[in-house]
Amino acid sequence: MAIKNKEIIRSGYNDLLGRIVRILVEARTKVVREINKAQVLAYWEIGEEIVEFEQKGKAKAEYGEELIVKLAKDMTEKFGRGFSERNLRNMRAFYLNFPIRQTLSAKSLEEQKLQRPSGKSVTLSRKSEISQTLSDKFEPMLSWSHYCELCYQ
């Protein structure tokens, strides 16, 4: 009887192993894609933050190099690799070269006012909703390094 059980296991084992391997490979591929998407979207938003800070609503920034140097130093201390001056410049260039237009409704979310009981109005921070809109409108299909290459072509 033990021999018969071993034969049954052997006869279906390779198929079972193949299915399990395929499940894991597909799951890992999805994870890598989602991580890449999150990274690219985050870098686009970081680029947006840098440009908005530099320009303060003006058409062109008055300064910038000092900001990039300081950000690179502080971000590298806090998060380690990935925030060199060069990469921060790449994030800035990515934002400028790949404008992802917000819908009117997303823009109006930023401008909505909340009336507090004190009578003071406060602008609502809707970054997460805007980020979701960004995520819905832009599906990164390339890696970060590919987008960097495209920015400087």
Notes on the protein architecture:
This protein is 71% helix and 4% strand. With 153 residues, the protein is mainly α. It folds into two domains: 2-100 and 138-151, no CATH class; 103-137, no CATH class. A two-stranded antiparallel sheet has the order 1-2. A hairpin with a 5-residue loop joins strand 1 (113-115) and strand 2 (121-123). Helix 1 (2-55) crosses helix 3 and helix 4 packs antiparallel against helix 5 (127-137). The longest helix is centred in the first third of the chain and has 54 residues, at 2-55. The N and C termini lie far apart (69 Å).
Which helices and strands appear, and what pairs or packs with what?
Blueprint: H1 2-55, H2 65-79, H3 85-97, H4 104-111, E1 113-115, E2 121-123, H5 127-137, H6 144-151
Antiparallel strand pairs: 1-2
Helix pairs in contact: 1-3, 4-5
Share of helix among residues?
A: over 70%
Q: What is the spatial order of strands in the main beta sheet? A: 1-2
Strands, total number: 2
| Bulk shape | elongated
Structural class category: mainly alpha
Q: What would you report as the Rg, rounded to the nearest angstrom?
A: 24 Å
Order of helices and strands: HHHHEEHH
- Tell me the span between the first and last alpha carbons: 69 Å
Strand fraction band?
under 5%
Number of helices: 6
